[in-house]
Design a protein that fits this description.
With 896 residues, this protein is mainly beta. 4% of the residues lie in helices and 36% in strands. It has five helices and 81 strands. The longest helix has 13 residues.
């Protein structure tokens, strides 16, 4: 017999042996309390105890503190747990009960061998989390969400560690005197009225999401608003009033902000932020950190601040400012003004007549990827009129020290016009007159010719090994020149030429006779392996994929191409041109091009070349033909033109672009930027954090691994997020978006969209149009861990399906339908409006219950402590914020 002092200190095992019906009571220690074969009554007492009843019909009481109840499905069948509380767990050994995950708590749990009874537990007690590990299911009671409506006074709500929801539905109820701490969990503040406030250190903390659906906003945050390493999502996509959100004080957290249809101003702090303007003439301004800014529709002004930023103007006449850091700026549609600022920037104007502007030093090492007739370069504070009338080239000396690269520009592109006025120089491209020509050379020896008005000397020498197809050509002249590099036998008279800038040589080696069948495979793979690239295996896989597309009778010219130069930079691209385009049924080319001896960023242009394996950091462009291009581990810019192309970026941080044609683009490893073109493309981000744009026509886009940002573009697209926390934008037209795994954010945009959250706690925003939103599972392994989805229908008549878990639903404008399916879990509807035509659509005889009329549903309705109606549908719970049970009538419900 233990003394009272001994019992208070005991931390061992208390066991009820044998088959007798015994009562065992623990004390203040942390004990394992084990029953025997009889019907035992076990009480853990104080302390953190583990209770196991064993065989028989047992009565289990954990006592104070957080306890665990454990047993097999058969042992727990018929047992009663008298005091299960939030945070306590039941471990069912040898059984998979993950179907319980995300379900509202209930008074019984079916173990598969019978029912486990839970005294005092109802749907209002919380939600079950059920996780399978090691063959055992751990069922934990998690807290139900807490709802709180802000008032005009100094609010200090008592929240908990669950997923709480705060509502600001009156003007200026969010004020500096509030003390709102969301604690743990994923909390949301829903604003539906105008707010003007400057937050202090304790006004709003540990709140992860702010949803703005109505009202003009002027909010200035504090550094304490977002916790260190955390992200606050500010979603105003459905708001029609101006949002002015100033997060510039933030030093150690990040913002993900989306504006609405008005003229918004979104300002972030020092983190790696994401700012999206939406419709309207928006101002987006980021601070330090590698930020992503997207203007959306309207005439926007976007400023990246310090850091390596990605800035997209999208539609409208936009102003893009990269500021400090190595930035990538993409103007999109419209006549945009683009300034990279300091750093090594990549500038892409997009459609429209664009202006690239900055000081001379700003243009140091920059690349303008699509400079064309109609575009302008404005250099402030420097007279460059000496460039007027000079031949166009791929580099231009603006700063006087380091050249600026103009991708795709050659001497054949025309001439530069340069005008100095008002202290600034404006440089434009003047198209060449119709006509002209160039000098070709072939065979052995040397040949001279003319190109662009200059004298060209091209030396063409054949090595003594005449059994091979080896050839070296060198341009010793001052302007570009052309000579053949492939004149094989047995290749259907195919001739391939190379146009070389001045001071460039090319060595071309390979069989003198075109290969066929198995010989093609062996020859191409040997050519790749012979260059000793770190990406040999990946490049060989790409080659095998290309070869499988060829006819068994196709002849193949295989070449290893090694360009070299004595110059520190190239003024124009190396151009390799096949004689005719081919569909692979008769004749093809497969080139292994090693650019590693050239200056970084040198440009290679491929016309009518079916396959190229590229090694080295370079820019690869293309014209005619269906091209298949693979890159190695270096960072490359690959953008081809007419034809149905297949591009693999490889292991580097690549920019992959599509022109016209139905293209297939793979970013592969590292953080890639992938652009679709003017037709129906298939785009893959690959591993790491990618940004993928569909552009025109109906594209299919895959984020794959990493934290990706996907943009559908202008037509009806299909987007798949992949394995991690992705952000998907359908943009224009009727799109289909799949979040896949991870905590995803999906924006449908304009059009009648379908959004599937799938695994993970997702945010789905329909936007304009009649959208369908489906929340899906609530954890990546499908185990429904108690996390929740947020669904926001936006404008239009939407259909919303919460799915499993705890879901927060915002119907938005229009007559919306909220579908309640079997075992959905706990749905909370924040803005249900029966006068606008909203309805709860309930599956007939849901969960085996006799539910087929509005009266059946109303009979199951009660009100929570805040006066919000809560409906128990036999395993599903629905809460309508701001609506009392007495208001319910037939118009609230529909059945299917």
């Amino acid at each position: 017999t233990m003394t009272a002092a001994q019992r208070a200190a005991f931390t061992g095992t208390l066991t009820a042996p044998g088959t007798a019906n015994l009562a065992v009571t623990g004390s203040a220690g942390n004990q394992l309390v084990v029953g025997g074969a009889g019907s035992d009554t076990l009480n853990g007492g104080a302390g953190t105890d583990t209770m196991s009843g064993g065989a028989g019909v047992d009565n289990l009481t954990g006592g104070s503190e957080t306890d665990t109840f454990r047993g097999s499905a058969a042992e727990l069948a018929g047992d009663t747990i008298t005091d299960l509380t939030v945070g306590e767990s039941i471990v069912v050994t040898g059984a998979d009960l993950t179907a319980l995950n995300g379900q509202s708590a209930a008074a019984t749990i079916a173990t598969g061998s019978g029912n486990l009874n839970l005294t005092g537990i109802t749907g209002a007690s919380g939600v079950f989390s059920a996780v399978l590990a090691g063959g055992n299911t751990t069922i934990t009671l998690t807290a139900p969400p807490v709802s709180f409506t802000l008032t005009a006074g100094a609010d200090n709500p008592t929240l908990d560690t669950g997923n709480d929801v705060l509502t600001a539905n009156a003007t200026n109820v969010l004020n500096a005197g509030d003390t709102i701490d969301g604690l743990a969990g994923t909390d949301a503040l829903n604003i539906s009225a105008a707010q003007t406030v400057t937050l202090n250190a304790t006004t709003l903390t540990n709140v992860e999401t702010v949803n703005i659906t109505a009202g003009a906003q002027s909010v200035t945050t504090h550094d304490g608003t977002v916790a260190s390493g955390q992200t606050m999502t500010v979603n105003g996509s459905t708001n029609t009033s101006a949002i002015n959100w100033d997060g510039s004080a933030e030093t150690d957290g990040t913002f993900s902000m989306t504006g609405g249809s008005a003229n918004d101003t979104l300002i972030s702090g020092s983190g790696a932020d994401s700012l999206k303007g939406g419709a309207g003439d928006d101002v987006l301004r980021a601070g330090n950190g590698s930020d992503v800014l997207s203007g959306g529709a309207g005439n926007d002004t976007l400023s990246g601040g310090a850091g390596a930023d990605l800035i997209y103007g999208n539609a409208g006449t936009d102003t893009l400012l990269g500021d400090a850091g190595n930035d990538t700026l993409y103007g999109g549609d419209g006549a945009d003004v683009i300034s990279g600022g300091s750093g090594q920037d990549t500038l892409v104007g997009g459609a429209g007549n664009d202006t690239f502007t900055g000081s001379a030093s700003d243009f140091n090492t920059d690349t303008i990827s699509d400079f064309a007739v109609g575009d302008s370069i404005v250099v402030t504070g420097k007279d460059l009129s000496a460039l007027n009338g000079t031949a166009a080239s791929g580099t231009i000396d603006i700063s006087g020290s380091v050249a600026t690269t103009l991708t795709g520009i050659t001497s054949g592109s025309g001439t530069f016009s340069a005008t100095f006025a008002g202290g600034n120089t404006t440089i434009t491209l003047v198209a060449p007159p119709t006509g002209g020509g160039g000098g070709d050379s072939g065979g052995g020896g040397s040949s001279g010719g003319s190109s662009g008005g200059g004298t060209v000397v091209v030396t063409d020498s054949t090595p003594t090994n005449t059994t091979g197809g080896d050839r070296t050509i060198t341009n010793n002249g001052s302007t570009a020149g052309t000579a053949p590099i492939v004149q094989n036998t047995g290749n259907n008279s195919n001739v391939v030429t190379a146009t070389l800038p001045a001071s460039v040589s090319i060595t071309s080696s390979g069989p003198a006779t075109a290969t066929i069948g198995t010989s093609s495979v062996e020859t191409l793979n040997a050519a790749i392996a012979g260059r000793n690239s770190a990406s040999t295996q990946q490049l060989t896989t790409g080659a095998d994929t290309f070869l499988r597309r060829l006819s068994t009778t196709t002849t193949l010219d295989v070449r290893t191409i090694i360009p070299t130069t004595t110059s520190s930079s190239l003024s124009s691209p190396i151009v390799i041109t096949g004689s005719t385009s081919s569909d692979g049924t008769v004749q093809s080319e497969a080139f292994v091009v090693d650019m590693r001896s050239l200056p970084t960023g040198s440009t290679l242009q491929l016309d009518n070349i079916e396959f190229a394996s590229i090694m080295g950091s370079s820019t690869v462009t293309g014209g005619n033909g269906d091209n298949f291009v693979t890159g190695d581990e270096n960072s490359q810019f690959i953008s081809l033109g007419v034809g149905d192309d297949t591009l693999y970026g490889g292991a580097g941080a690549d920019t992959i672009g599509s022109g016209s044609g139905k293209d297939i683009l793979y970013g592969n490893q590292e953080n890639d930027l992938v652009f679709g073109g003017t037709e129906e493309d298939t785009l893959y981000g690959g591993a790491n954090e990618d940004v993928v744009y569909g552009n025109q026509q109906s594209d299919v886009i895959y984020g794959n691994m990493g934290y990706d940002t996907l943009y559908g573009g202008q037509d009806a697209d299909t987007l798949y997020g992949g394995q991690h926390q992705d952000v998907l934008y359908g943009n224009a037209d009727a799109d289909v978006l799949y979040g896949n795994n991870g905590l995803d954010t999906l924006y449908g945009g304009a059009g009648d969209d379908v959004l599937y959250g799938e695994n993970g706690a997702d945010i789905l925003v329909g936007g304009a149009g009649n959208d369908v939103l489906k929340g899906g599972l609530s954890s990546d392994d499908g185990s429904h861990d108690g996390s929740f989805d947020v669904l926001s229908g936006g404008a239009g008549d939407d259909s919303l399906y919460g799915g499993l878990g705890i879901d927060w639903i915002y119907t938005g404008a229009g007559a919306d339908r909220i579908y309640i399916e079997a075992m959905n879990g706990f749905d909370v509807v924040a803005d249900f409006d029966v006068s606008a035509g909203d309805q709860l659509m309930i599956q007939a005889n849901l969960n085996g219950q006799a539910i087929s009329t509005a009266a059946d549903v109303i009979a199951r309705a009660t009100d929570d402590v805040d006066g919000n109606v809560e409906i128990d549908l036999g395993g599903n719970y629905v809460r309508l914020i701001g609506i009392h049970s007495s208001e319910l009538n037939e118009s609230y419900f529909g059945f299917y």
